[in-house]
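Per reviewer request, we include the raw input and output of the structure prediction for the construct analysed in the revised manuscript.
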Amino acid sequence: MPSPFHIVSNSVPAPAAGFSLDPAAHPRPDWLRVKFFNGPNYQELKRIMRTLGLNTVCESARCPNMGECWENRTATFMILGNICTRACGFCAVPSGRPAAPPDENEPERVAEAAERMGLRYAVVTSVNRDDQPDGGAAIFARTIQEIHRRIPACKVEVLIPDFRGDWQALETVIAAKPEVLNHNTETVPRLYHEVRKGAIYTRSLELLRRAKNLAPGMPTKTGLMLGLGETRVEVLAAMQDLAAQGTNILTLGQYMQPTREHLPIVRYVHPDEFAEYKTLGEQMGFAHVESGPLVRSSYHAFEQEAAAHV
């Protein structure tokens, strides 16, 4: 019997090579407009981050939800510095060769910030550190351990790079017992070369599969950006690939161009299409699918983890 998710034709045709939306002719739709928050919680979190010399992916990636999340006292810590050794076409984090090794004291500062913020759920991600033998895995592990030591009731989600296929590095992170392990796939295989330079689609799938095998009781998570030129068939095929690795949580959101130097937006995906992907993803076996134009990997992370255990 054919898969119930088999699609014989694309409802969204593949764009012509080099095609992108003309911002003047296609202004940002209403569903992508967000309210800016600048209240006392936002200001306090900003002071904590600057006082402790910490980076957040919220700021570095220019996340549209930063104001809302910070006002609700949630933020995603970005460890291992603020210079990434890769230059992905979608990402606003500066790229280059870091001048200094990772800061060995950073895990303690992250844990202190999490305690000051009163977190019950902390999300930790990083730049790629391909210049390091373990890709920064040991710092990830110590950050998890320090948060758990300082705030025993706080759960930790890590959003990790692929460590260039160093599976010992993956084991190092998992041995520290994060509550959720996230690794974003970002896009469909056809677009990997221009979207995720230095990454390999099958390697990301293998990472998710190995993580689930190493810690079957730990929810695994991944995310895709839409609007980069992928087709419906490609999105559904990627979702099936991810479900086949035993991945528990899937996030789907609209790609937004950080600057004119980054990959252009090919189309704005309508909220109804995101809703359809959510329904199909749940039918494929994901425990939870967070799907919508403004969804980002760490948006409502606490609620996603709770839903994956229902």
